[in-house]
Amino acid sequence: MPGFEVLYQAAALCLMYPDDDFRARLPLLREAAPQLREFADHAAVTPPRELAAHYVEVFEAGQEHSLYLSAWREAAPAPSEELYRAHGLETTGEEPPDFLPAVLEFAARTGTTELLVDHRDGLDQLRCGLTDFGTPYATVLEAVCATLPPAHTTP
Questions:
Q1: Where are the alpha helices (DSSP H) in 33-134?
Q2: On the chain, which terminus has fewer CB atoms closer than 10 Å, C or N?
């Protein structure tokens, strides 16, 4: 599914902890990825401390909305550092290779959606959980999931 690299890179930024760097990139992010404008607009008008506290509440307060693909029970193996290296990329060591923003950046840099497609069921579960929670982060997952083929359904 070529052509979504900019969206994946922008979504990766949206799903990282919202620091000052993130805030500085909001205008560019908003223009580069129109699918994420709703989230970018929300982030732009939300006070920094409030946005950071919301991020912690949503993603770090428990496993319910985990950004780690290995937290979602799937048949596909989680990505490894070796996979990143095989594509000429290195992980920073700050987060494991199954951290969704890292996987999105991998897709953006390599042009391959294989990891996202392999973990589509987990991404859908996360998207639904974020939607039910009522967080603007749900729109980021909606945009990413909209680029992928439908999830496999088992009879």
A1: 37-45, 48-55, 81-86, 100-110, 114-118, 120-133
A2: C
